[in-house]
Amino acid sequence: MYVCSEKRMEDKITTFSKFGDAGHGGITRYSLSPEAIMARNEFIKRMKAIGADIEIDDVANIYATIPGTDPDAKRIVMASHCDSVKNGGNYDGILGVMSAMEVLESVVEQNIPHKHPLTAMIWTNEEGSLYPPAMMCSGIVCYDWLPEDIRSKFKFEDMMQSKSILDSTKTFGEALENSGFKGDKKFRLNPENYQYMFETHIEQGPILEDAGNDVGVVDCVLGMFNYRLKFTGQTTHAGTFPMPKRKDAFFAASQAICYLHEEIDKLGYSDLVYTTGEVVCHPCVHTCVPDYFDFSFDARHEKPEVLEKVLAIVKSCADKDWSGCSCTVEKAWNRDTVYWDKKLVGYVKQSAEECGISHQYIHSGAGHDAQFASYMLPTTMIFVQSKDGLSHCEPEFSSVKHCTEGATVMLNAVLKADND
Ligand SMILES: [Zn+2]
Q: Is the pTM of this model over 0.85?
């Protein structure tokens, strides 16, 4: 078994954490921002230093490739993203990029024989935190392979028109033009030149840490649905209108949220997660009774039959009277569970076993670029333990040991895949 370098991993973590350093332990590194461009340049510099060939596609995804011994073999690609959310941490996304770099660096430094060319890749704009949506550029590149209802959200022209959330006069297309990283469409990830995709990522949850396991062998990305529950009442004056006659849409929604928690928890699925995370309140003024309130409802589970039971409860809200307010239930979108390639999952498991790294099977509750890539190529993921399960925040942390173990597992799994 081959082992990656903790020292080199630590150096990368320290270096990349400077690009977008917000001054309190984390980073803000929006896609194609000056900070993200520093991270991209560092990636290119380090990959060129080991003799990798650099290609950039038309949406600024970067591919650094070292050749294998078989000139006809397709590439094995390892990819993640270098952008972050606002005040995010030093590991989400970039750990996958640093792990991919670490695999290539280990192969070159240790002269590890391999047949296939190996590619380390950066996906552009995974978070979508400045230019929505999330997973924008994997959505664009994998467009032709995606299911119809997913792909409709990633039309190239629409993506180019995506407006900055900070300045609505600026678009993603302009940021791309100005970045200096707009390359050629011919370099896009494709099934003719690429055989397998791996992505290493922090877990972003507490499961591995609670179980005392360093690495997760990811088997799927959970299926989910996203609905909107909309409550309509009547606005009246906060000081003049008696309580019994009110139709307070906010109050109605709060009752519905309690109802949802009670009924869904009765189903008894400990591995089901659901969230009412986004709300709209109208008129949202302290002197007015709200006449309108809506909230998002996001539920995730591996099994579609479980999600169907949850959905039936969500839909039942529309048949009830909520303190004089009506409720409509609208579907935003859903996705089925995406299972990773069984053979590649097996390579990851074997690799962790043979390296003596503690591990377990785990599902991904979050979406990742690998999920879209999986419609095009056999794909899998490796998770690295997250301290306290925190992510998308500045205290996000994974130890150098765990990060390096993740890279080591990926390296040996890639070498197993290299024999195919
Ligand atoms: Zn990520």
A: yes
Calculate how far, in angstroms, residue 201's C-alpha sits from the geometric centre of ligand 1: 7
Residue-level pLDDT at 383 = 98
Q: Find the 116 Cα to ligand 1 centroid distance in Å.
A: 26
Burial of 239 (0-12, 13-18, 19+ CB in 10 A): exposed
pLDDT at 149: 85
Instruction: State in Å: Cα 253 to ligand 1 middle.
Output: 32
Measured in Å, residue 115 CA sits from the centre of ligand 1 at 29
The alpha carbon of 372 and the centre of ligand 1 are apart by a number of angstroms equal to 13
Instruction: Please count the CA atoms within 13 angstroms of the CA of 363 that sit on its side-chain side.
Output: 16
The answer to whether residue 52 scores a pLDDT higher than 90 is yes
Report percent pLDDT > 70 for the chain: 100
Please tell me the distance between residue 251's alpha carbon and the centre of ligand 1 in angstroms. Answer: 36
How much distance in Å is there from the Cα of 325 to the middle of ligand 1? 39
